[in-house]
Structure formats: C-alpha cells, structure tokens
Write a structure and sequence with these properties.
Six copies of one chain form a homohexamer. In chain A, helix 3 packs antiparallel against helix 8, helix 4 packs across helix 5 and helix 7 packs antiparallel against helix 8. By secondary structure, chain A is mainly alpha-helical. The radius of gyration of chain A is 27 Å and the shape is extended. Chain A has a two-stranded parallel sheet. Chain A is 51% helix and 4% strand. Chain A folds into two domains: 179 residues, Ferritin; 46 residues, no CATH class. Chains A and B meet through helix 3, helix 7, helix 8 and strand 2 of A and helix 3, helix 7, helix 8 and strand 2 of B.
Chain lengths: 290, 290, 290, 290, 290, 290
C-alpha cells in the first residue's frame, strides 16, 4: 500500500510562464518516453514478480519515486500555463507574437482542463498502458527499463535545451540526474544476476538445443545484389554470450512459396470467381498429372 | 527500395491445424513483442539515421529480414485455421471439445478475414505504431532493440512450449534462433561504438555538469518506515559508467507543497465556490498578515 | 512525493486458483470502471487543483489509496493464475473441462507476462488515459468521481457474484466497501461546497443571461409523430437548480438547411463534377433571379 | 428507427471564418466532453435498457437531439474553414499573422477532409467509443450523464469565451442552454427514482451485509506522517445514504506482503537466475526450519 | 436535425438465446465492417458536403437508416444474452458445454453492461472514429462507401452462416438485403456523376501534366529475380480511365542512397560516438578530396 | 522473403527545408490515407490470399513497392527538418515568423526523434493497423484498395499544392503518378475477374434467395415529412448488378418497439428501483389481463 507527502520531491519553480513549453512538457508526462510509463511499468513488474524478492522490492521503490516525478511535471505544466492567452480575437488581431503563442499551445490545456496538465503526450495523444512492459523475465524487463530511462533522458536533455527558464532548467537537471541513476540501476541489476554475458540469450532458461542453432549467430544481409552484409562487431568475433562465433552472409530462402487451401465455401464471403478459378486450376493440374 | 522473393525464408508446415494456436500466434504478429513492431522499428531507425552509415545499413538489413518473419507467421496462422469450426450450432450441440475450440478462437479470424491472419495481437487489439521506438540516439535505440528481441524470444519460447505440432515447433525454433542472433547483434553494436560502460549515461553527449549530480548515483528508498533501501549491486560499488560510486538512502522531500494560482475567471469553467473560497482564504491570510 | 509499505491494504488470498477469473479481474484493473482509472483520475485532479486546498488534499489521499487497490488486484490475478494450463495439446486432447479453461483465459497472461496481471481490461484492451477526467471544475469532477465509483461498485458486485472462492469474496467485499465510502465522499464534497442545488448548472460561474435561456429548462421530444415527450420529473415541476420550472414539448427546427460554400479549387481534391455541377446550379439560380 | 429533417435545430452562422476556432470546435465534436460521446452514450443506454420503459424513452429522445448537435457543430467547423490558408509558401513568406493562422490550424482539416469537420478532438485524436458508459444500472448511468453534460457545458463556456464572432456566440449560447437542461434532466431522473439518498450506494440492490462494512463509511488518510486525514463533510456527520456516520483515520495495512509462487518452468520465459535464486532461498528456509 | 420512431425498422426476434452469438454480433456493431462506422461515415460525408446537394441529401437518408441498424443489432445482442451463465463456479463444475459457453462469451457483456451490447467489435476493441472516411472528394468517398458495404455484407453472410436461430437468420437476411442495395447505390452515384471511367484518376481535377506521367500507367514488378511482373488486365490494354495503355516492367531505382545531415548537437540527444564518427568520416572524405 | 536496395525508388530532394511541411508530410506516412496503411494492407491481403495466385502475386509486388514509398517520405521529412528551430526562447523573443514556425511544428519530431519522421499522422496520432482491410473477398478488397489509393491521391495533390519547393513537388508528382496507376490496377483486377457488374452484390457467392430481397434494390428515404426520397441514378433504372430495377420510397417501420427481459437479479448491478418498477408494471398488466 502507499502513502503520500504533500511536498514535492524537488522544487518546481517557473519564473516566466511559457504555455508552449507547457505543451512540450506533456511529452515527459504522457509520452512513450515519459513518467506515467516508467511508473506503471515498474509497478506492474513488481506486482507480478515471482522472486527473488529483492528485485521486486527495488522495483517498488523506484516505481514509487516515479509517481512523484509525474507530480512534479504536472505542477510544472500548471505553472507554465498561468496567464496564458485564451481568446482568439484579442490575440490574432493585436499581436502576432502572442497570437502565435496561442497557436503553439495544446488547446485541450485550455478547453479540457482549465490550465492544467493532461495524461497525454505533447501531441495530445493519451497514454496507453500497452507501453508498460512486464514480461515475467527479469533480464528482458531490465533491458526494457534501461530503454525507458534512456529515451527518457534523451527527451529530458532536449527539454532542457528548449527552455531558458532557470526554474525549469533546475527541475529538469534533477530529472536528468535521476535518469542517470535509474539507467545504471537496471544495468546493475543485470550485473547483480551475473552480468550481461550470462544473461544472453534471453530467456537463458530455454534449452538451446531446441533452437535451429545454425541460424543463431549469423548476421544475414538482404541486399538485392546478394553482396556481403554490412560488417561490424556483429559479423565476426565471439558472440556476446560467449557461446559461439558470429558469421555473416546473404539471406537465403529455405522455404517454398506458400500454398494455402482454397477459400472455404462454408465460411462464406469469398467471390464466386475466387472459388471457381481455383477449382479450375486444380482440375488442370490434376488432369495434367493423370 | 525493396524487392521480394515469393519463397519463404524458412519452411512453414502445419501437420494438424489448431485454430486456437492460430489465435496464440497473433501475439507474435501484432503484439507489442511481435514482428510488425521490430520490422517497423528498425525501418524507422534506419530511415532517420544520421550516421555513421554502417549502423543504418545494418538496421535496413534486419528490418527487411523481419518483414519476412511476419509473412511466415501470417502463413502459419492461415494454415492453422484450415478446417476450423465456423457455426455455433453444430459445435455446441454435438461436441464439448470442438465447441470449446470455437470458443477459444479469435472470432475475427472467421468474421473479418475468412480464415487468415490479422494485424492484431492475440486479444484482437490492433498494433499501434507508437511502439516503434526511434529516438535519434543510437545507444537508446540499440537497447530498445535488445528489449524487443528479448521479449520477442520470451514470447517465442512460450509459443514453442504451447504446441506439439512438429511443423510449428520447427518454424518457431528458427524464429528463436534469429532472436538469439538479433539480441546479440544489437549488443554488439553497443560494443562496436565503444562498449556498455562508455555508452552511459545515455545520451552521453549531454554535459554532466548541467545535471544535479548529487542525485545521479544514489539509489533512493521509498519505504514508509524510512529504513534502508533494498541493497544490491545498485546501492554500492562503482557505477556502471565508471564515473562514480553508487550510494543509497531514504528518499527526501526537497520541494515544498505546490501552490498554483487560483482559477482564472477569464478561462471560465471553475465553480463560483472554488473562486470565492480561494479569494476568502487569500483575504484571511492577508488580514492576518496586516 | 510518495512512499510505500510492502504490506497490502487488505489480505488477498486465493483458495482455488481460477485462471478464467483472473481474466475477469482484469476489468477491475485496466477497464474503464477499474482502479488504474480512478487512481490516475484523482491524481490528475489533485495535481491541477487551484484551490481550495482541502479538496486537493482529499483527492491526494484517495488517489494514493487507489494505487494500493491496483496492487491488490494485480496480486489476485497472479494468484489465480498459479497452476494454469499452458499447452494446447494436453488440454484439448485429454480433458474437455480444462481445455475449456484454456479457451476462457486471457492468452496474454501466459504469453506476455508469464502468469501475471496486465494493465488491460478483461478483453485485453489496454487502458487509455483519456478516461481520466479532470476538468478544472470541482463539481463536474466530483460527479465524474461519483460515476467512476458507481460503475466500479457495479463491476465489483458482479465479480463478487461470479466467484465462490472465499478469499476472493473477502477481498472483493473490501473493495465494495471502499467504493461505498468513495461514492459518498464525492457527494459529500458537493454538499461541502453548498449542495447539489447550488452546484447547478455546472459551471455555475457562467453568467446565465448569456445562454439562450428559453431552451434551458425545456425537455424536448423527438418522436416522429410529434406527440408529447416522455413525462417524468424532468418535464414539469421546479428545476433541480431551483431557478425555473421544467416544461416540455416536441423539438422544432429553428435553423435552416445548411449551405456551405462550393469546394475550393485551391485546396484541391474535389472531383471536377462536384465543382462543375455546383457552378452550374449557381448559374441557374442566378439566371432565374436576374 | 430514425428520421431526419434537413433543417438544423438552431441557426449556425459565421460572420468571420476563423480556421483556428474550427480546430477548437473539434473538441465539442469528437472530444471526450463532446457530442458524439453523449449521442452514442445515450443511445447505448437506451438500446440496452431493461425497464422501466419511460427512462428508455427519455434516453432515446435526448440521444436523438444530440445527433443534431453534432450536425450543428460540424456545420460550424465547415463554415469557419471557408477561405482558410492552404499553402505554406504564401503564408510564411508574406505575413506573420496569417502564417500563424496556418500553424494554429488542424492540418487534417485541409489534408484529410478538404475543409470540413473530423470525428476527432481538437488535437486530432479520433473519438473512441469506450467513452460511452452504459452499465445497466440506471443510477450509475444518470451520474455518468450528469458528468458528461457538466464537462460538456464547461467546455462550451470556454469556447464561448474564446470567440467574438456573433454567430458562433449565438450557436454556443444555445448549446449551453441545452446542457443546462440535460444536466438537470438526469438529476431529475435520479429524483424520479426516489432521490439521491435512496440511490446510494450504487448499486443499491447488493445486500450490504456482504460488504466489509467496517470500511464502508470511513475516510482514510494516506499522509506519511500518519496524522489526521483532511477534514470536511466526508469525515464526520451522517453518510449521504443516511445509513451510517462518516468517520476518519489514517490508512492501515491489514494485509501482508504478497507472496507469489516461483516462476513456472513449464510456462517458460523466466531467466535461470530467477528460478535458481528462488529455489536456493526456499532451501535455506527449509533447512533452517528442519 | 433528427427524429425517432420507437419501432424497429425490421423485426428482431431470438428463439434460443446464444451468448456466444451475442459476442459475434458485436463485430457488426462496433467492428470496422460494422454499422457505427457506416452511420458516422455517411453523416460526416453529408455534413461536410459542399454540393451538389442531391448527394448530400442521399447521404443523410442512408446515414439515418444505418442508425436504426445499430439499434436492431444492439437489440439482438441483448436478446441473445438473456439467461446467460454468469458465475464461474456453477458452470465449470457441473457442465463442460455450458462452461465452454461462458468461456466463449464477451465478459464485458456481463461485467460492464449487465447483458447488453457494447460499442466494440467481437474482440472487445472499442470503435475508433478514424475509420469514418470523408475526404471531400465524392468519388473517393463513394468508393469508400462501396468498400464499407462490401466488407459489411461479407461479414453479414458469415454471421448468417454461423447461426441457425430462425429469428436471427431473418434479421440478418434483411441487413444483407440492405447491404445489397447500399453497395449499388454508391456505385450508382458514381454513374450519376458520369461513370467509372470518367471518375479516374481520383481526384480528376488535378492537372495530369503535373504528375510524373511516365509512371502513371506502368505496373512495376519487385521480384528479386528481375523477371516480368505478374500479368493481367493491369499490365496491358487500355487503362481504366481510357487515357493510356497499361505497360509493365521490373521496378528500377531512380533515386540515390539518401544522405541526411549529421546529428544536430543543438537538438541534443545523439551519442557522442554518432557525432564523432560522422565528423571523422567527413574529415576523411574532405582530406581525400583536397 | 524480402530484399533491399539502398537507393530510393525516386529522388528525394529538398531545396529549402520547411519544418511545418515536415509535419504535413506525416499524414502521407502514418495517416489513414498514407503509405504504411497501403503497404500493410496489401501485404496482409497477399499473405492471406487463397487463390487464384496471380492476384496474390500482384498484391505482393505493389505492397513491396509501397514500402519504398514510406522510405521516400521518411527521408523527405528528415530533410525538411534540417536546421529547424529547437529552442523556445530564441524564437519567440526575437522573431515572430520563426516563432510561428516552431508553433507549427510537430514537437515530437524534435523531442522524440531528434529531427526524423514518426510513424504517425500529421496530428501525431500513431497509425493503428485496424485500417489494413483484408476480408478474404477479393472484390471487397479491391474496392478497399481503390479507396485507399483515391484518398491517398487526394492527399498527395493537397500536399503538392501546399509546397513550392521544387524537389518536394517533383517527389510528390511521382507519388501522384503511382497512385494513378494503382487506382486503376485494382479496378483492372475487378475487370480481370469479370467486371463491375458481375462482382455485385459482394460477396456474389451468397445465395440471393436467402436475402430479404424485397429490400435489396429499394432506396429508402428518411425524411420526417415522409416525402419522396432524393432521386438519382440510384432510385430508378437497372440496378448495378443488372439483376433488378431500382425503386424508392419512404422508410417504414416493419418491426415493433423492442421488449427486453427485466434486469437479471443474478447478474447483479441494477438498482432496486429498476427491478421493482418493472415487476410492478408486469403485475399491473397481468391483473388487467386476468
């Protein structure tokens, strides 16, 4: 269960409200790189964790912290909206710069919330929880978390560069720092379990003799000129799991052209022509064979 | 631009069609762990790549390969649906086992496609392309790709265990092998750029003196008893980027309770009571202070 | 900011795991009537609240409680999935009842999470945060909250009736009790602000002389026979805001048939025929008039 | 079944087309507070109504009226788009004000419709019908309807304040008036069934002895300092259903830390380390106990 | 504006309720081939129609009719749900056939609506209004309408084959008949404007000398063996618009490998390695050239 | 399986980057009229095709071509973003015109991708694959394809008119030309199967004696004045399938007012009042009858 403290984890100050920046900040709230995503992703990983319990506990701690980051950002949005233009007539008629401010705003921050944050991204697209990865495999989930914190920190640095408000820069420098920590925390969990090399291939509990192993360490090129695939660390040398050597070569077709059964008249829905042409073709083949 | 070969990359055979397995396979087509996702994710990363070109080229090769995997799975779905029950009356009245087959099917594979695959997951939810991560940061994107291939391989092993059809097991063993390769290929790209340690924190081009660095390597606990946070590789020892030592401690509130301006009467929409109580409160405070 | 306690708010026990009930419980997690929705809805209302602060504080308290309810339900899902069937072959071949269990399951609880909860509804549709209403108007938001708790309690009673597992019935009886409280809490907030009558029409800060008040208290019937509209408390007697009398009558057309300008050739995209027929028509009218 | 009258329910005139206002109006068409939502919500409530029939009939009448409101707004959008800028080059090069008009427009109103309304909100997000609440419980549905009309009227007053076009102000004053009526109509239906007090808790047909009633009328605080919860009408005095007294107190943990079974090797997908660490832990516990 | 008649357009009777068929019928309500789609699609086409008015009028008439079809189907769903199983325990323990009925049901028809229709498809995915095509080009829209009625009639015939309830078969035979009419009605509108040949290419108002006309009537093959493309009516003979002859040949690359500028350090977010390797590469090229 | 050629199908040049046009181009990538849609739609039609194989082959060829069109457009977006403004402070403070450029941009093209294309439409809404129609009926699918290429070409001509960059105009003139071809190609496939008349009604394999044929060729008017429906090619003359004559007349109610069973107390969730009023009503009727 959960408790709250009315204070924010870190100060949120806005010196000069900027309603266009309020729109940009939405990406860090409800975007796929944002805080609702990491918060729910870590919670669902924790709630479904089947041990060892220390990973569950760690996930709970960071999930709970992230909830406070959404709060900070929502507060930042509300503060950036104070004094925002709200009527089309004044703006456009009198002032091209302010008129353009209204055009750059997220209109729903006026129309739907009365100057507050939305659970959406900077284009107004609502967050959808399918982005909360929780696979039941700890290594896969830790990589998902590194990814989330990496795209999150990329986003945060772009927001940092977009504003010159000292309060906003201060708040974002804190969020960047936490992303720095969280990225490494999830990599540290990988190391805690034995290290990157031992983790692969994920899941490492599947018996590898059941995979078609002649294809397991070969980089395949798809160039239509059938030349050598792009070379790099991935095309030769030891594989990352230390179990094999990488090789490379052009992709080949091991399968045949697929043949599906003709349309089923019982299911209905095909055109007569589909069924009769197929039947005719079958007859020609059959006659030829007999 | 792209070309095609009518043959499949690997054989797709189904010995005993199973329409319920056709539903399960949908997860590998249009699920968040599935092939449409990796295919489009790698393509968008490649198409937006601003160099060095070898990473772009490698992305194009694997994206193109993945397109062929969707094809294989769509073929497998169609083959598993051949001979599927299609009418409620026969099934339920005569045969509890077959009746249950119809109940376990994806009805849209009958109603919408006439026994073919859908671009949806195993619950019929359409794939939505917001899952195609392409951040413009190569390290973040490589971790996103490791994640995609890891959750993809986890899914594939579960599908492998779910069926006993030899053709399906063979096809899936190939897909598992390719996931093995692709996971490591993206980790190899990380190594190709200098290795995991050098990549962090992602993005590594942001000047770290601009982040609030006292928070950059500290694991924070949120336990309401204010005790020590969960210990592990993440709470002490060298950080993963080799730049600092991890520390840990309970989370503290550095900020204050947030104060937003009262509702703006010009924006409209607040209740009178909200505005008057706030005004009254402000007066009381003001009177007290004067 | 937020803290956690590893213990659950209320015990969650499952005596006899039922994977089909695990699917039903998803509706209470990620359904539109579920706990993710109320949790985020109350948080966003709180984070955007512009006073008086007591409503903000109350919202924070209940939002934080709801987070713990998602945790309870996610735990209940995981417990109900223990021992679930996982392979099609065993099930269908040997046992019609268990085979039907697999058919009734949410396949993604096997394939995507490895026997854990998803942030989706009982049909596997991910929760989308557009359902988190936070309008900036306290009365509208309180009614939204009554609605959420009412549909939530309706759902909970249906889940209660669906199971006979004593542990599940106990857990749900707790959730029902909390819904009882929360429904009334939001109505109490309405009373706290002055009562239902005073709240209407919402928002009550808009000057009513600016609305077309001859239509403000009239129930309009749309029956094609132009008879009397359905009678009830809404068609006569004092209006709910005490400001007028309800009346009723058949709906009338006060407007005309709409006339839009012809397609703009500069925008492009219309067929030639659309433009020429319209032009011709205009000419005929013009000629007739001249 | 349904019939139409080519005339509009109320006049829709635009004196000075404003394409940015055309974008704002979209929120009232396809937004969650908009007219598609109420129209379909009332229809689905009516079509599923299992009596008494007068509520079904009333729902049908208002649903049918709302359809005409979508029509009015779609007409208003089309009229506001007449003469809109359509080419980037002219605008930006010659005229900052008009350039900003294009930037403030919904581009799909040019690109997708050729100057007409879309079934989306003001950010271009399509309406999704999960917002049409119809629970089968009349009281819950009436509160959902009050909510819809309240957020709808809040939105309408914001749109009213955003424009100074007399035709638009006139049309919106009509829509505001109808929202005034409809809010009260749904509250009147509550009264018609016996009044607010009798309706609670919703559903009132569930035997309350089956709920965990010690938690049914208690407001729980979640403050980490374990102090008194926020006081108000909800923390003491008679409950809104007249059946009990409100109380309040800090939230307590009645449950334990959840314990899930270890990962199931049959389901596959967990890392070896997850399974072995858990097994090891179990052995230590077992040894200690023996 | 709109009016209603309480009677249904056509009788809806269910002799033997079948809750699994109630799930299947959802596809015809909220599926992409369903009635909500055509209803709203025709309404939005009508409301945005800029003449000639007869097409607008015709669209309004059919849109209004379709609203009544949603009503018929929602009624059919409710009738099919009467007497549905509702508790897991009874079903599974006593009766494999009925147990499987519950497994085949849409659980939200119990949990969310209390035995009524949802605005979703047969997999529970809510309808999303982006499927309502209204392009402002009458010919494109008429083809969109033919498509909608064709996929709709395909769906209806599959539903017809799936049931043996005489009432349901009768209702569906009516819907099939209306789809027959509506398909042809939209084709008739094409003929009314001058016929298929004259309509192409859509839009026919764009000056064809502005298109790269050497590519306008050539079927391009993408086979990796660079052989002849698939032959058919599309590879030779007069084009469908009568303006040219079809030709065919393998696809060629007329463009070059794309070259994007290196990552912009001002935008932030790229890895150092991306920027330095690109810079290094540029230097090598420059040195080589100098 | 698939192969790639690093070169583009057609040159993509941008003389003067325009970030607002980069936003507009998104509609042609991830919009419902865009290239991701046609690409995946044709692929899924091909992969599910059950013969005759020439249609499958043709679909594969054009699907593969369309993949290259997404690539061209993604490249065009990236080139249009080069040199885009990225910081709010500089823009708004110094320059109304450039400030408005930032306001007109898709912020996610900065924040999420670092100046590259997104798989979304011009409003930032992600593409959702439910738009990929593949019904298993060739005629329906061909009409779906004509529709896709028609709305696609309408969109392309609007984009052509929106820009004056010679490189962009050249690229779009190529895409327009390919849309010209593809529209006709799908109509040619209809002719290849026997022609438009023979295709109707779609599906033409359903025995027409099973449809309620008195409604199959009648245009029904819904005007509330019960007058004649709108006349046109659709109201008289031979039907498009040559099997009947069109007729017309006002719509009639053949059904009755629907009567659903009262709420089921076992399902729970209805209000007591709903159940008792219905029961009371039933008693009154019963008493009257006895």
């Amino acid at each position: 269960m959960y408790l709250h403290d009315k204070r924010l984890q870190y100060p949120v100050k806005v010196e000069k409200p900027n309603p266009v920046f309020a729109k940009a900040l939405q990406q860090a709230i409800g975007g796929i790189e944002g805080e609702i995503r990491v918060c729910l992703q870590y919670f669902f990983q924790a709630w479904g964790a089947r041990g060892p319990s220390k990973y569950r506990d760690m996930l709970l701690e960071t999930a709970t912290e992230e909830l406070g980051h959404i709060e900070m950002l929502a507060t930042a949005v509300a503060l950036n909206l104070e004094g925002a233009p709200q009527a089309l007539q004044e703006e456009v008629s009198s002032d091209p710069i302010n008129g353009s401010v209204l055009n750059g705003m997220d209109m729903r921050q006026i129309l739907s919330t009365g100057l507050a944050a939305l659970p959406t991204d900077s284009n107004g697209v609502p967050f959808d929880t399918s982005h909360c990865y929780a696979s039941g495999n700890l290594a896969a989930d830790m990589f998902a978390n590194v990814t989330a914190e990496s795209t999150g920190r990329v986003l945060a640095t772009r927001l940092y560069n977009m504003t010159d408000d000292p309060g906003m820069k201060d708040m974002i420098s804190f969020l960047i720092a936490r992303d720095t920590m969280h990225q490494q925390q999830w990599m540290a969990a990988i190391e805690d379990m034995g290290g990157v090399e031992k983790m692969f291939p994920i899941p490492n509990s599947f018996p590898q003799e059941q995979e078609a192993s002649e294809f397991s360490y070969k980089f395949m090129g798809t160039s239509a000129d059938r030349g050598e695939p792009t070379q790099g660390r991935w095309s030769s040398g030891k594989s990352m799991d230390g179990k094999a050597e990488f090789t490379s070569g052009p992709m080949e077709a091991h399968g045949e052209e697929p043949k599906l059964a003709p349309p089923d008249p019982m299911i209905g829905g095909a055109q007569k022509e589909q069924m009769s042409m197929v039947a005719q073709g079958a007859k020609i083949v059959k006659d030829a064979l007999s």
